[in-house]
Description:
The chain is of the alpha/beta class. The protein contains 12 helices and 14 strands. The radius of gyration is 24 Å and the shape is elongated.
Amino acid sequence: MSRVAVRIRDFVKKFGNVVAVNGLNLDVFDGEIFGFLGPNGSGKSTTLLTIATVYKPTRGDIEVYGFSVTRNGDAVRKLIGIAFQEPKALWVDKPYELLVWHAMVVGYSLIDSRRVVRDVMEELGLWEHRNKLFSELSGGTRKKVEIAKLFIQKPKLAIFDEPTAQLDVTTKHLVWSKIRDMNREGSTIIVATNDTFEAERLSDRVGIIYRGTLKALGSPSELKDMIPGGDIIEIRVEGFISGNALRKIEDALETKRLDLSNGTLKAYVNRGEEKVALALEILMRENVKVRSVAVKEPSLDEVFFYFTGAKLEEVRG
């Protein structure tokens, strides 16, 4: 079994009478990319900020590689780095100076700081903005400065809170690639996002969090398989399919629903990729000509709705 990087037990965080996180239990494993998926206000950022020792738990505890965030804060801070959802800088800061200072704080020499900062800034398209005031930067450029801190630091545990918010599509893919590179180089990664495509693209495992509660946990494929009848086997046919053939398909596939319309047969099943051969075998025996076959899996948006009863795009906010 993989070593536990972050152990969260009975974690509760309140702000006054508002419960932001309610009884969270979760392990993040060493070497994985873990995705927290949920809308703003779901408890993602609160959890990440507590892991980073910015907040203290109201109840319960969180350990980072065996160090408690409540009792061993200094040790935890040596292991982690965080890119905040909202970029942290003074309006009069200049990106190059800010990042060189950050590089030196995390252990680089001045010469190495200048080298690594230039490399990262050029890769992210920041070099031309290096001497502008932070107040002069666009929202997307400020965001790139914030995440550049982690690409420079490469901590043992890297926390990204909404890493690609405000970024264009090309830069998003670049950031995802650099996050995967960090992971391959030895960093355990936690990414908080309300973007299902980002969660699926990056994460080894995803935790769906909603209203402060963990609703589901697993790899993207495992989460999709948890939806009863979530896969759709879609077969386009020529000619007539008898009622007897449809009943055989329904029984063999243990389908939740079977539709036939305009020459297209749709079977709603669990683990569709394992059952499609059964449907084709029955149709072949019944002398039905098959024109095309497709197996469609549910999206993470549909998974989110199944476990929360809410549509993620309506509660992102």
